[in-house]
Amino acid sequence: MFASFKATDAARGTAVLAADSPAGPYVPWSDGPVTPRDWECLDGTLYVDPDGEPWIVYCHEWLQVVDGRMIAQRLTPDLLETTGEPVELFRASSAPWVGAGDPAGLYDEPAYVTDGPWLHRLASGTLIMLWSSGNTSGSYAMGIARSLTGDVLGPWEHQAEPLWADDGGHGMIVRALDGRLLVTLHQPNQTPLERPVFAEIEETEHSIVLAD
């Protein structure tokens, strides 16, 4: 399990945990976070490329950099640590559906959120990424980016409109036992009211759409 933690004396980061069963209990696998120790990071997710090499894709928080960044970094095969330098994939403001916002009231300039990356390879071979931010209407939303090369390092192109625009996001894609593809997300984006939402999706050549 990749999970994010923060302490009063440490920056937020994503660590790797392990268990003998999905039900746990989970114990630390990595020695603390695998994201940079002096960066505020969250929502690290595992991606395994076509060569079987593991990566972590995570968010460098807007709280520290104002315009949130999406970052990819290689992991060692045992998932104990990262290897190589962090690579910036894109910034939140590069997506046309993303709006400026500063929920914490920290800055005198526009701030842009990156949240919840999830990578999915379509049957066509196209690599897409679900990720979340605030949209131009001020609602928490989830959009889609597409790798123009099929590689995790991109470059990445954003869809003009979010997949989910109604106060929900941080999605993942799962396949149900009957073969249907579902996107899972939480809605509303208000603690402690968040609840899991499951919506059926369909693949196109270069993206996904919500099923009728």
Strand order of the largest sheet: 4-5-6-7
Structural category is mainly beta
Mean pLDDT figure: 95
Low-confidence stretches: none
What is the H/E order?
Answer: EEEEEHEEEEEEEEEE
Overall body shape: globular
Strand content: over 45%
* End-to-end separation: 33 Å
Q: How would a crystallographer describe the biggest sheet?
A: 4 strands, antiparallel
Helical stretch tally: 1
- Rg value: 17 Å
Number of strands: 15
Helix content: under 10%
Topology (elements, then pairings):
Elements: E1 2-7, E2 10-18, E3 27-33, E4 41-48, E5 54-60, H1 62-65, E6 69-75, E7 82-91, E8 115-121, E9 127-134, E10 140-147, E11 156-158, E12 169-175, E13 181-187, E14 195-203, E15 208-210
Antiparallel strand pairs: 1-2, 2-3, 4-5, 5-6, 6-7, 8-9, 9-10, 10-11, 12-13, 13-14, 14-15
Describe the structure using short key phrases.
4-stranded antiparallel sheet, 212 residues, mainly beta
Give a structural overview.
The protein is mostly beta strands and 212 residues long. 2% of the residues lie in helices and 50% in strands. The chain has a 4-stranded antiparallel sheet with strand order 4-5-6-7. A 4-stranded antiparallel sheet has the order 8-9-10-11, with no helix packed on it. A hairpin with a 2-residue loop joins strand 1 (2-7) and strand 2 (10-18). The longest helix is centred in the first third of the chain and has 4 residues, at 62-65. The mean pLDDT is 95.
Structure in a nutshell:
This protein is an all-beta fold. The chain contains 1 helix and 15 strands. The two termini are 33 Å apart.
